[in-house]
Amino acid sequence: MLLQRNPKKEIQQPSAKGKMVALWNPSGSDSFPLLEKLLALVKKRGQTAAVVEFPCLGIPRVAYQLGMTELKPSETVDQFLIDYDRMMLRGIHQYLHSFPDFDALLIQPKSKPDTPTLIKLQQQSTVQEAPTYLKLHLSGYHYIFVVLQGQMVHPLTFFSIREADHLVLTVNEPMELIHAYTAFKMLKQDYGVASVMFNVNGSDLSDFKVEKICSRAEELFSRWEEEAHDRNH
Question: Structure pTM?
């Protein structure tokens, strides 16, 4: 049975405990290689994780990479956004697809390119509030990895960046570094995003001295924990 809710009222509850980590490649490339490494490390650490991929471009990248050719319509981020928009949300775990080591809210692999989910939404507040809602209601996980595929002009990407505890700019090719660094400077100077980190996949950029670059996924956990320690002391 569908229960009618008021999402605006729910997101006013206390802040979530789980760490929301946004993975974003400003050049539009794939952040899955880093996600895969982070999920393996979460498992190794005996922790839990939820994965969310927002459909700013409507490309089911994570589902494809995980070998998913189809998901139950009810277990997709598409249905979650539609139900949120109509104020007909079910319990959040009813939208999650469970994998052996994590749970995920993914784009429907069979979604049609000519009818993306975002054009079906009627309330502008849906794309603004969804990241906050998910951060709160997925707070039982140690980490909430949000995979972003859009640009700053896409509300789900923009508000996920603002809501995240940590933002990782992924770089798969050396040529992407310029765009990533431009985004880094903008986020720091214009938007006040404090915790922004780089992750470079497969390239040695150790001579880049302006901001520390993490070349291994393990380094990200160390830096997140160092920041938490510094804030608490």
Answer: 0.82
